[in-house]
Write a structure and sequence with these properties.
Blueprint (H helix, E strand, L loop, with lengths): L4 H15 L7 H8 L3 H7 L3 H13 L12 H14 L1 H9 L6 H21 L6 H23 L6 H13 L2 H5 L12
Helix pairs in contact: 1-2, 1-4, 5-9, 7-8, 8-9
Length: about 190
């Protein structure tokens, strides 16, 4: 059985961020908490922000990765929002941090990259038309903005409500854009 150093570091970051502001946590403090060497840390992560993004990928959005193109968008998004709520203290602090590799930029880039790949997979073998590509990018940015706003405003509506708003917003006009695809799948219909 191998040791998952990345997960150990991510778990330590989550635990430490409950006791101390995330922005003031240092790599040295994380290493002291875990017993992981500095060299091992930097073998896995560029810096603390890279570790924050790993926590986001692993603990918050586990279904949204480029190996999982067969997701149910609504159900996977609901799990994501429930995870955001579970780790709200971490997410809010992380989304307020600025700088290279910051989480809020990562969320937007991750959402766009995943959606483009997912919509291409759903569209079929032919390249997506420009209109579908544009709509995908637009909706990815709008969804990310809604998510960030929800996090930073202390989640004023229940998870199910924000997920439903995002799914409905993303579905606007997409049916028509997917109409000419090799696939009859429309990703935002239940």
């Amino acid at each position: 059985m191998s040791i998952d150093v990345k997960r150990i570091l991510g778990t330590a970051l989550l635990e430490l961020s409950q006791k101390k502001p995330l922005e003031s946590l240092t790599v040295s403090q994380i290493l002291k908490e875990t017993g992981v060497s500095r060299q091992t840390f930097y073998n896995h992560f560029k810096d603390k922000n890279d570790l924050i993004c790993y926590v986001y990928d692993t603990f918050i959005v586990p279904d949204f990765h480029d190996q999982n193109m067969n997701i149910d968008f609504h159900d996977s998004l609901l799990v994501t929002f429930e995870n955001i709520k579970k780790y709200h203290w971490f997410m809010k602090q992380a989304c307020q941090m600025e700088g290279q590799n910051c989480l809020k930029d990562y969320i937007v880039d991750h959402c766009q990259a995943f959606d483009l790949k997912w919509h291409q997979e759903l569209y079929g073998k032919e390249p997506m038309p420009d209109a579908l590509r544009f709509a995908t990018i637009y909706h990815a940015h709008a969804s990310s903005s809604m998510t960030l706003s929800w996090i930073l405003s202390d989640m004023p509506v229940p998870c199910e409500d924000i997920v439903q708003m995002i799914v409905e917003m993303r579905g606007l006009g997409m049916d028509k854009l997917f109409q000419d695809s090799d696939n009859s799948i429309h990703p935002y219909q239940k």
